[in-house]
Design goal:
Layout: H1 4-15, H2 22-30, H3 50-63, H4 67-81, H5 99-112, H6 124-141
Helix pairs in contact: 3-5, 4-5, 5-6
Length: 154
């Protein structure tokens, strides 16, 4: 059994217990404050540019997401647009619930918003699956197959 990954995670979390600035983000992720707000009280999806919202809604309709998946994507997008508080969104669920599809659609939406995004996954296979979903959404949008994918690196 290889414990290297778990050891690195433990060291990263343990090093933050000394009161460094990383503890704030860890508390946010772990929800140690039961009163923590889910959304910024200042920002809302209505504050997003109307043209961007319409383009993203069109992309969502073409992705065939279920309501829970759509909510997850919109939650990540609104959190990204907020300039008032830091946030981390976790997309989780048992196998077969559409996490890969949701992340692929989220990456597509962020790509349409011209956001530079780094995506990580625990296995090479997971990276490949998310990449396939994302690239299939992007290539479906292109008018001609001869266009390159620009700055997309998989």
């Amino acid at each position: 059994m290889n414990l290297t990954t778990n050891t690195h995670i433990w060291q990263a979390l343990h090093s933050s217990l000394d009161g460094s600035k990383n503890m704030k983000m860890i508390n946010k992720v772990l929800q140690t404050d039961s009163m923590s707000k889910e959304r910024c009280s200042i920002c809302s999806i209505e504050d997003t540019k109307k043209s961007d919202t319409l383009n993203l809604q069109e992309a969502m309709c073409n992705s065939n997401l279920n309501p829970s998946q759509e909510t997850a994507v919109w939650s990540c997008i609104t959190a990204r647009e907020c300039r008032h508080q830091e946030s981390v969104n976790l997309i989780w669920g048992p196998p077969g619930t559409g996490k890969t599809k949701t992340v692929g659609c989220l990456l597509f939406a962020l790509w349409k918003m011209k956001c530079c995004t780094l995506t990580c996954a625990p296995t090479n296979n997971a990276v490949l699956e998310v990449s396939k979903r994302f690239v299939s959404l992007v290539t479906g949008l292109l008018e001609y197959d001869t266009y390159g994918l620009g700055d997309i690196v998989c």
